[in-house]
Design goal:
With 144 residues, the chain is an alpha+beta fold. The protein has six helices and four strands; from the N terminus they run H-E-H-E-E-H-H-H-E-H.
C-alpha cells in the first residue's frame, strides 16, 4: 500500500531529490505507527526515531503529519541532529504545496525573531531604567 502511494506521488522528474508528496498525503501519517514530518520542504519518516528522540516521542507526535519547520528551528537543534535528520529523508513536498508553505514561512520567521529580541531587550531596558531611577533617588535622598 505505502509503496504504491509513494510511486504515484513520486512521478514527474523528482528522481534526483526523491519522491514528491502532497501535504495531504503527509497529513495522513500522524500516528505512532507512521510518523512523517515536513522540515524546510523535505519529508521525513521519523517513525523509527520516536523512542530515541531526546525530547520524547510526544514532541514528534505533536508535529506529525504537518510542517514542523518552525518547531524544529525554535528548539535550536545541533549540527549532529541536522545530520541525523538526513537518514530519515523520504522525499520532497509537492511544489504546489511548497508555495503555500513558503508564503507563510518568512513572516513567521521574522516575527519569531522580533519576539526573541523583544523578549530580551525590553526587560534589559526596563532593568536599566529602574537601576538609574533607584540610583538617582538614593543619591537625592542622601544629599537632603
Amino acid at each position: 500500500m505505502e509503496a504504491g502511494e509513494r510511486g504515484e506521488a513520486g512521478g514527474g522528474g523528482a528522481a534526483e531529490t526523491g519522491p514528491v508528496f502532497t501535504l495531504e498525503e503527509v497529513a495522513k501519517r500522524n500516528s505512532s505507527r507512521e510518523t512523517w514530518l515536513v522540515i524546510h520542504g523535505s519529508v521525513y519518516d521519523v517513525t523509527r526515531f520516536l523512542e530515541e528522540h531526546p525530547g520524547g516521542e510526544e514532541v514528534l507526535l505533536e508535529q506529525a503529519g504537518r510542517d514542523a519547520t518552525e518547531s524544529f528551528e525554535d528548539v535550536g537543534h545541533s549540527t549532529d541532529a541536522r545530520e541525523m535528520l538526513k537518514q530519515y529523508y523520504i522525499g520532497e513536498v509537492h511544489p504546489h504545496d511548497r508555495k503555500k508553505e513558503g508564503s507563510k514561512s518568512p513572516s513567521t520567521t521574522s516575527s519569531g525573531q522580533a519576539s526573541f529580541w523583544s523578549t530580551w531587550l525590553i526587560p534589559i531596558f526596563g532593568a536599566l531604567v529602574l537601576g538609574l531611577m533607584y540610583r538617582y533617588y538614593m543619591l537625592d535622598g542622601r544629599s537632603s
